[in-house]
Amino acid sequence: MKWLHRYAVLVVCSTVLLIAAGGMVTSTGSGLAVPDWPNTYGSFMFSFPLDKMVGGIFYEHGHRMIAAAVGLLIMMEALWLRRAEPRRGVRLLGWLALTGVVLQGLLGGLTVMLRLPDVVSIAHAGLAEVVFGLTVAIALVSSRGWQEGEAASKALDVHAPALSTLAGATVLLVYLQVLLGALVRHMGAGLAIPDFPLAYGQLIPPLDSPPVVLHFAHRVGALVVAASAGWTAGRVWRAHRDDALLLRPALLLAGLVLLQVGLGGWTVLSYKAAWVATAHLGTGALLLVMSLVLALRARHRLRAAPEPAHAPLWPLVELAEPR
User: Fold this and answer.
1) What average pLDDT score do residues 291-315 get?
2) What is the spatial distance between Cα 323 and Cα 318, in angstroms, rounded to a whole number?
3) Peptide bond into 161 cis (omega under 30)
4) Are 293 and 241 in contact (CB under 8 A)?
5) Residue 66 to residue 86: CA distance in whole angstroms
6) How many CB atoms lie within 10 A of CB 177?
């Protein structure tokens, strides 16, 4: 199974490259540089002359080529899991990843044929993150440490809410923020508020137009994600700092949040420079999967404390009780 895990890591790395390539397509406005699909200017995709890959064609056609390669890698991974993986749930992850990447390719084709409709483009971006998360989950659960149990249930999580619950909530919040970011990108609201960290020189800008409301909502969402990630990382630091398999992703999660906020500001101040905007998108994807890794490891390694008979109805009440 060692080689299966290594192959799964390769699939993860290739998916990162695919997300970055897709980000460059959007950042450079190259989504319709190749106006037909699945062909490229009437040619079979893989026979299109390399010397014609210039300008926006380089980004769009390159994105298609990388997507085809990643799709093939994920298909081989799903077949490998079917043959060699005894755990039904892990085999299911492989089939879900394969289904997701096929749907992703079809959505990519629809964005071209329908001339970049916002709904399809945003669905394309959102599904990309789901596929990425599935590939990361496969790589994680196929590792030797995971299969040997990683000392599962070695510690009792006596805090409320449980770390796995808190980390899971962070995963959901990050994903919603990623979708909101896709709305900002594809609806042209990236510079609706042209300054940073203030908004038109104020804490709250005049909310008199949909692009401004959307952009400001994305900034507020960033604060919510930062608070959730900080709470999660703080919980690990206070209660599980001796557990490297929890501490490492927690610290990386906190660091990625800071980096992402900085890149978001830089995207505005650089007037959406393509490489900066793409780095912002890519870091968001890494933030999502890092929160996912932490949530999965917490659930795998920690036993939640049994709920006492007098447990309060609301977790905040329990947090307020003296210890």
Assistant:
1) 69
2) 10
3) yes
4) no
5) 30
6) 23
Q: Whole-model pTM above 0.85?
A: yes
Helix axes 244-269, 210-239, angle to 10 degrees: 160
The C-alpha atoms of residue 126 and residue 181 are separated, in whole angstroms, by 10
Asked if 16 and 58 count as a contact pair (C-beta separation under 8 A), the reply is no
Long-range own/partner contacts, residues 247-254 (CB < 8 A, 24 or more apart): 249/290, 249/293, 249/294, 249/297, 250/294, 252/290, 253/170, 253/229, 253/287, 253/290, 253/291, 253/294, 254/229, 254/230
> Which residues touch 128 (CB under 8 Å, ≥6 apart)?
18, 19, 22, 104, 285
Whether 239 contacts 157, CB under 8 Å: yes
Average pLDDT over residues 132-151: 87
> How far does the chain reach from its first CA to its final CA, in angstroms?
45
Residue 274: closest CA among 58, 53, 23: 23
Cα distance between residue 83 and residue 88, in whole Å: 11
Distance of CA 159 to the CA centre of its chain: 27
Segment 46-92, tens digit of pLDDT: 999 999 999 999 999 999 999 999 999 999 999 999 999 999 999 99
Q: How far apart are CA 207 and CA 214, in angstroms?
A: 9
Q: How far apart are CA 32 and CA 92, in angstroms?
A: 35
Helix (H, G, I), strand (E, B) or coil at 256: helix
Q: What are phi and psi of 89, to 5 degrees?
A: -60, -40
